[in-house]
Amino acid sequence: MKRNLFLMSFGIGAMMLAANHANAQSRNCAPHAAVVERLAANYGESRQSIGLGSDNSVVEVFASTETGSWTIVVTRPGGPSCLVAAGQSFQQVAEALPNTDQGT
Which of 27, 78, 86, 103 has the highest count of CB atoms within 10 angstroms of its CB? Predict the structure, then answer.
């Protein structure tokens, strides 16, 4: 009886954690215009770069050159824009390709 009660409570706890995780993920996604507006208003971030992923997702890097905060946003075709990573110490770099000449 105690074992069944323990297993039931463990299962309920696991379901609550899974629901919480799914809810947290949905809070990280919104229409693109809302994401851009929120990043600008709350963090002073603007788009610094953009690219197309292999699955046709648009990948954007937003950053503030004043505070150094940055955010990576992914927008899937027909879907909302989702925040996938954020951090500090953003720096713009323009590195040259390394010399690939092998002694010629």
Answer: 86
